[in-house]
Amino acid sequence: MIIVNVQEIKKYHAANLVLDGVTFQLQEGEKIGLIGRNGSGKSTLLRLLSGHEQVDEGMLTVKKELQVGYLPQIPAEFEDLTVYEALAYGFRELRAAKREMSLLEERMSSPEAAADPVMMEGLLQTYAKLQERFESGGGYEMDTAIDQAASGLRIDRSRDERRFGSLSGGEKTRIALASQLVVRPGLLLLDEPTNHLDLQGIEWLEGFIQRYEGACVIVSHDRYFLDAVGTKMIELEDGEAQTYLTDYSGYVKEKEARLLQQFALYQEQQKAIKKMKDTIRQLEEWGRIAGNEKFFKRAASIRKALERMEKVKRPVLEQKTAEFALSPLDRSGRKVVVFEGVKKQFGARAILNGADGSLLYGEKVVLLGDNGSGKTTLFKLLLGECEADGGKIELGARVDVGYLAQQEPIRDAKLTVLDYFRTVGALEEGAARNALAHYLFYGADVFKPLGQLSGGEWTRLRLALLVRRKPNLLLLDEPTNHLDAASREALEEALEDYPGTVLAISHDRYFINRLAMRVWALGDGKVAAYLGNYDDYKAKAGEQRSAFAGERLDSAFADKKAETKQIESKPMPGTGQGTGTRAGERGIDARSNARRRDQLELEIAALETELAREDAALHGIVDSALLEEGWLRREALQARLDASMEAWMEL
């Protein structure tokens, strides 16, 4: 069923036409990736779909009573709420109903209500209506939904009473996202939902969206994420929308094929147009020479046909992208960074506890870890911005460090892009404008105040300044955040060709797969190193978890076997050992028992293997329904294993 119908809509920002004849439809349950370059109108379209803005021309219709979930930005009223109140923001009416029910319960238990049947009847009717509204709105599942979203997005529930306004930007973003997920609207609009999430949070969100019954429109530049959740891609380009019925990888292939086909049609049409113009010119010339009006009429007829012809737009086969011309000014020594036994503690909390690692010149390493695991702390230690509590950190010879922070506050929001770049980069205006053009800041863009820059534009500007410094060691903290897909790919290409050393914090799995030679996983205060990219890391980490689970099962089985042998070695009470008759009986039974024991041991081994697989599958599941289903399968396997173990022990 169609829930949203968009037909030939136009939207202006002042005199700037942002959307020009956009047309598409949304069906129930669809998962749509809304993609396009920075500034192409994606966020504008989300505001139109949510009703925050109105179209200037065209038609946008939404299914009656469709609940739409969208937060264009963190609401100002969140600042004075507690964390729990912000998480339950979408349940404001239900929580108000719950408070009214509690008040009614107190009044119904009062002596006055007990003594007045009419009053009691009125209270009961009001209570019944409130209870029906509370139940139909999902009030009894409210806390469960909040727990699931908070757990999946790694939100610390021990801080429920903390004021929302005191949290960091990343924590606020995760809580605001969770406040939308728990409501489960019919249409969920998400704008860059993976920003500020760690890998576990991103993978949980992927599972949530895949199982989500409602429709989703997701603005994201995370290509891996769009492949995992997207069933349809809508690309905004030059104000127009193009729909692709596939995931992101399929979109890339289909778009390339469409552009090549469109270019071939364009070339054929241009040939036909040239031929028609040549014919018009020749007919008019013949008409003048021969003085024959028929030639002019024929030429006019062809000219009208040419004017009526629907022109094929010339496709842009290669869009302009930022040119990250990375090159170090000087080569460092072979050993770039070495740290051993590094410890760092904040208060009672140990962030790093004996972390070891080393970087060699030319290596590309990506640092992974949960939010709060100490990744940024390790960067600050390498930069010398704070001191370690223990261990040693050494930088190699001639190491020149270039650092890109994940978030860098704008100190003077009124300063223009050009003035900021000239001041920090120490350049004349002409050279500065020429350099900025390489990073897609053209014409009037260079006079834009810093406070009006998007997240992607601010990141591009900071990268432009970093490139000018020509460092030979790059420390990059989430460098692809806010960048559009084209800029991400340009940055990846530049980093691949960069001869220096790169250590990057990233949760962009596409970026990691393309760049990483090694992966460092930071957990429990230590660094574990894995050769290869993200897929290699995930496979090896999964093998280690399975092996660990198998070792625990083997250990438990060995303990039970040892206990059984001890039981068997003890003489039964009241029996005489060594009598001939009983020794003969034991000899007859021994062969039968040995065969049965062999069968049971094979069965136990198979069950333990199956149980280990089930344990590995259960790892990381937070959805209660899936967890319960998996746990029931595991319990059935465990019961069979216990029965086999008991039978084995009795032999």
Query: What do the pLDDT scores average to?
Result: 84
The CATH architecture name of the largest domain reads: 3-Layer(aba) Sandwich
The residue fraction in helices comes out at: 40-55%
Annotated CATH homologous superfamily of the largest domain: P-loop containing nucleotide triphosphate hydrolases
Class inferred from helices and paired strands: alpha/beta
Largest sheet: 6 strands, mixed
Structural shape: globular
Number of strands: 18
Radius of gyration: 34 Å
Number of helices in the DSSP assignment: 20
Strand order of the largest sheet: 5-6-7-3-8-9
What is the level 1 CATH name of the largest domain?
Alpha Beta
First and last CA, distance? 63 Å
- Count of spatially separate domains: 5
Keywords: ATP-binding, Coiled coil, Nucleotide-binding
Pfam family, one: ABC_tran_Xtn
Coiled coil: 590-617
GO molecular function, one term: ATP binding
Brief sketch in words of this structure:
The chain has 651 residues and is of the alpha/beta class.
Question: Features of this protein?
Answer:
Rossmann fold, alpha/beta, 651 residues, six-stranded mixed sheet, 50% helix, globular, single chain
Description:
The chain has 5 domains: 1-67 and 185-245, P-loop containing nucleotide triphosphate hydrolases (Rossmann fold); 74-183, Rossmann fold; 253-308; 335-410 and 453-532, P-loop containing nucleotide triphosphate hydrolases (Rossmann fold); 539-650, no CATH class. Helix content is 50%, strand content 18%. The chain has helices at residues 42-50, 83-87, 92-108, 111-115, 117-136, 142-152, 169-181, 199-211, 223-229, 248-290, 293-308, 375-383, 417-425, 429-437, 455-469, 485-497, 509-515, 534-569, 580-618, 624-650, and strands spanning 2-13, 16-27, 31-35, 57-62, 68-69, 187-191, 215-219, 232-237, 240-244, 335-346, 349-360, 364-368, 390-395, 401-404, 473-477, 501-505, 518-523, 526-531. β1 and β2 form a beta hairpin. α3 packs antiparallel against α5, α6 crosses α7 (169-181) and α13 (417-425) crosses α14. The longest helix has 43 residues, at 248-290. The chain is globular. It starts with a strand and ends with a helix. 29% of the residues are buried.
